[in-house]
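W.,

You were right to be curious about this one. When I first looked at the sequence I had no strong expectations either way, so I just let the prediction run and decided to look at it fresh. Below is the sequence, 287 residues in total, followed by the output.
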Amino acid sequence: MKATALRQELEECLGEPFSAESIDRIAYGGRLRTLSGENYFLKKGVASRMYRCEANGLRELALSGAISVVNAVAVGENFVLTRYVERGSMKADFFEDFGRSLARMHRYTASSFGFYEDNFIGANPQLNCAEGCERTDWTAFYFQKRLLFQFRLAERNGYVTSGIRSDFSALEHRLPELLRGSEEPPCLLHGDLWNGNFLCGSSGKVVLIDPAVYYGHREAELAMTRLFGGFPDSFYQAYRQEYPLPEGWEYRENLYRLYHLLNHLNLFGKSYLPEVEVILRGYRGRG
């Protein structure tokens, strides 16, 4: 979409003008200011369902009322426009408050796993809908719509060896046993919660951005938070005080890391393969 057409669409959505130059200088994402002084953040690019899925995910997170989420103002085939988050300084209790708020968000539940639409995890599809899967069975949902989808994608990408295939088959048969005792209602998940997908707002409180929303198991969310450096211990302590985890969560954590590592393998290549292999061997008892 040319900048002129995009500017016209945005101005129609907001009812006030931008300068043409302000949109021209944004390659993929950046801050925009209207002539009245309102600040927004624009992501733009080629036509993609990703923009609409991102907006729908942000709106779903906001339904919990438990944690601040960037506000999606307008969305089109080539863009998503959100309110600009003015940055603040993290207070001493920032991560404790973050942990408690996330725990409260995880108490927002649904009747089935998944979401009303398929969306994206990074640039890869994330399957959420009911076709071919019983959405009230977390073990079946997690295996079929998360692990198996990424595994088959890795096969098509040429990353799967005979050893990985054998270990993955063994994990499939063990998964009901490994997840037994952790059953909980489907809860609202950000879905891609790592250090790059939250901000500290002007109030000093957390603001969530860039979700891959679905209703799932909260242990999957917490496993993702630990994948790339993790959050401070105070975050996890506050979370567990607010909403204790089922016994055995530490042993199950790598099951949920595996989904994101497979996704990163498929997005970014073989550097993630050793971690995938270690997790699969570990659950086979061949650590």
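Here's what jumped out at me. The radius of gyration is 20 Å. And, maybe more interesting for your project: The longest strand covers residues 39-44.

Coffee later to discuss?

I.
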